[in-house]
Design a protein that fits this description.
Low-confidence stretches: none
Bound molecules: nicotinamide-adenine-dinucleotide
Mean pLDDT: 96
Distance between the termini: 51 Å
Strand content: 5-15%
CATH architecture of the largest domain: 3-Layer(aba) Sandwich
Amino acid sequence: MNITIIGGGAWGTTLAQVLADNNNQVLIRDINLDFVQRINRNHVHPSFDVSIPSSIKATTDLVEALDFAQVIVLCVPTKVIRSVLNQINTSTKEPKIFINVSKGIEPETGDLVSDIINETIAKDKLKAYVVLSGPSHAEELIFRKFTTLVSASLDLEAATMVQNLFANDYLRVYTSQDVRGVETGGAIKNAIAIVSGIASGLGLGENARAALICRGMREIVKIILSMGGTKETAYGLSGLGDLIVTASSYNSRNFVAGLKIGQGQTADEAINTSTQTVEGIRTIMAAHQIGLKYHLELPIIEASYLLVTGKITLKESQNLLLSRKLKEE
Ligand SMILES: NC(=O)c1ccc[n+]([C@@H]2O[C@H](COP(=O)([O-])OP(=O)(O)OC[C@H]3O[C@@H](n4cnc5c(N)ncnc54)[C@H](O)[C@@H]3O)[C@@H](O)[C@H]2O)c1
């Protein structure tokens, strides 16, 4: 099958290799000409300098990319996803199956990518929408290390199609129909990964990190339920699973961004010194808005929101959490 990937960074090019391994023809569209040339001429992953199958091609041309396939994988940072989808809607001639693998929530609107798709893509150009998410570092999957993902769609047939498209002997894919739960879990865990990184940057130990991850999970569950997802999803691969892989790993740019904040950098400095997409800071903003909208008690999200927006200091954020009234677990 022909498949187009929009965004050929760390994750997009890694998924291109999975799809090429499964005998699909893959065309990547990226705005970075250097990335495109490295894929086409050198057959290397642009972020990791690892060899990739020579059958994978890349282009900067959006129309060429859209004409190539009926299946479109979205893998750009979520801050550009609305504008990218508007361009796709204008440039595409026929209906597409959209597979979203980006992990974020639009802070200004609280919209998930599925909401943005419905707002930007005309109904007659949208064949199906599937989100593919779960505990997955590109740094491992590129070496074909065992990984699991969830393929979620309201259209079970589409979820199963995507399951079969990606699954192979190193990637196991489950299906789900809880689109909102899977999208929310994949996004919100990045906020808690930032917090976990901040704790490490502050020099706190593993006791504190475990406490933040565990109490952070409580907040993730509340947010997933408010956004229309289920508890099963929250404790599944795209919730707890993704939290485990992200919240204490130096392969996680969100954890590392938190680490830098804990060591004294501002949120902007931490983002700008990362060469790859850091979704978690925007997700903290989005989680704060969701908390306000649904009247949720989210002390860890709230302390991190006040910290990354410069309203309180590191010391004050710690005091805010530690001075809370003692309570039952
Ligand atoms: N890296 C991972 O391990 C991983 C795993 C799962 C999900 N994700 C998610 O995938 C998304 C992308 O992450 P990444 O790690 O690949 O980031 P990245 O920064 O490595 O790559 C993003 C790519 O998007 C490209 N891009 C930006 N604007 C574009 C546009 N308008 N059109 C086409 N391409 C454009 C950039 O040039 C870049 O190559 C994020 O939402 C992230 O949370 C990443």
